[in-house]
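Hi U.,

Before I forget, here's the chain from the pilot set. I'm dumping it here mostly so it's searchable later in email.
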Amino acid sequence: MMPDFARPTLVAFALIVSLQVATPLPDVRPYLAVIEKQAGAVGFFAEDGKLLGEVKVGSFPHEAVLAPDGRLYVSDNGVLWMTEDKPGGNTISVLDVRSMKKVDEIDLGRFHRPHGIAVLPGTNRLLATTERPAGLILIDPSQRKVIRDYDVRGKSPHMVIPLPGGEWAFVSDTDSDCVAAIQLRTGSTRLIPTGARPQGAVLSPDAGRLYVVNTTGNQISIIDTRQQSVIGTIPTGKGPGRIAITPDGKTLIYNLQFEPAVGFADIASRKQTAMVALSGRPLSLTMTRDGRRAFAGIQDQDKVVFLSVRERKIERVMETPKGSGPDPAIPLENQ
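Structure:
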């Protein structure tokens, strides 16, 4: 028989255990979705770098866009490098960020090697570039199909940037050294000559300027989106490929694949003002909505570099799974 003096101790212990079991674990939401190009997956990471989940998608995914409803659309390109002469894949993987699960897949039919992808403003539709055949497609995720395609009048369409209002979209025709301005209602296309091998681009906050990095030209072309012409350039370091702009519209941040580094340019003076050296070749550059932090993926080292935009320095380096081959890291703020 249990002595009376022991009963309170056991009751208290049982109460503590029951409270511990009943208390839910903290809700750790993903901070970044990293497109793991070589692994054919998307990794979800906490802000401290902890891997929370990994989801298989199509082979060699290249780009992704986060929609307002919390879905992440991933272009399943199917080849590692755009220079490869292969048919590649023809799907868009659909992931739910909150559950960190793949929830759908959109078959693109005859359109292969989807690459750049964006949400068409004011709609739930998607725009995506395709490399086989070269073009731009409009996708309705609710119907799970392509509903229209556009002639980009160039080779190797890479990234797509739609204007607010959804009337125009700009596509970088990398192997044609130009940007295609496409009127989405009529399908008419106007070509804007740029520097050599245009790739990533970003709009100014007022959407009046489009800043396009030219990877071989080592410069940024400044396009007036209303005149649809180049009005200036900004010299950069070697091999800019992706680009972001601070919310105040004053500073451009871009990866430099052949330095390797991340570069910073002052828009007012049209000069590169800083470079942050990296340990390997960065293939991507993304930034948080508030402009405080940028991310560069080093594919061949399985690393994502966190950079302070204000201090122009590396905050830390996040390791991704071995062989993952990280490309863009998509910030998941407010998800």
